[in-house]
UniProtKB/TrEMBL annotation:
Function: Converts the preformed base xanthine, a product of nucleic acid breakdown, to xanthosine 5'-monophosphate (XMP), so it can be reused for RNA or DNA synthesis.
Cell compartments where the protein resides: Cytoplasm
Binding of 5-phospho-alpha-D-ribose 1-diphosphate, residues: A129, N130, G131, K132, A133
Gene: xpt
Domain Phosphoribosyltransferase: 53-155
Protein name: Xanthine phosphoribosyltransferase
Keywords of the record: Cytoplasm, Glycosyltransferase, Purine salvage, Transferase
Record's subunit section: Homodimer.
Length: 194
């Protein structure tokens, strides 16, 4: 998606260690018009695919998923929580994931009443690096008996291999921007065809 690639080039910050900061428009300050264009693009790419729920993970995926849901007939958005709280009641699906950016492990929790065997799920998230967060969401879907119809990613850091591993397992992954390489010193970024 050229619009997203151009925005990454203009406002993204490349840091050492394979970190791409896009907090000016994607995961701290949110550009809702861009989110809307992303939702329309995913709806086009997944046209004809049965989707009755969108699943994401807190916090950065929530805004993207909610705006995108409007392009899928206003389907419900379920987000996995990363911490147990008194607001989580009833039976739950739970697993744990390792966060590349936070460099620690988190629980991933979804209430059983929000995800089940009749659900056709589209997973949406802001980033795909090594795929650990998505592995957790896929495990939750498996526990629920839900069918994963596809995975939509805003930015895939293809050089970290998570997307390739998911595709090799048979998942349809549609990334709107695929980063092939980044150089923090030169401030350059190269995109692969998405």
């Amino acid at each position: 998606m050229k619009e997203l690639e151009e925005r990454i080039r203009r406002d993204g910050i490349i840091k050492d260690g394979g970190v791409l900061k896009v907090d000016a428009f994607l995961n701290h300050q949110c550009d809702v018009e861009l989110f809307d264009a992303m939702g329309a693009e995913w709806a086009q790419r997944f046209k004809g695919v049965p989707v009755n729920k969108i699943l994401t993970i807190e916090a950065s995926g929530i805004g993207i998923a909610c705006v995108a849901a409007r392009h899928f007939g206003n389907v419900p958005v379920v987000f996995a929580k990363k911490a147990q709280s008194i607001n989580l009641d009833g039976e739950q699906y739970a697993t744990s994931i390792y966060s590349f950016t936070k460099q620690r492990e988190f629980p991933v929790i979804v209430g059983k009443r929000f995800l089940g065997p009749n659900d056709h799920v589209l997973i949406l998230d802001d980033f795909l690096a090594n795929g650990k967060a998505l592995e957790g969401l896929l495990e939750i879907c498996e526990l629920a008996g839900a069918q994963v119809q596809g995975i939509g990613i805003a930015i895939e850091k293809a050089f970290q291999g998570g997307g390739d591993r998911l595709r090799a397992r048979g998942y349809r992954v549609e990334s709107l921007a695929r980063v092939g390489s980044m150089d923090a010193g030169a401030g350059t970024i190269e995109f692969l065809p998405a």
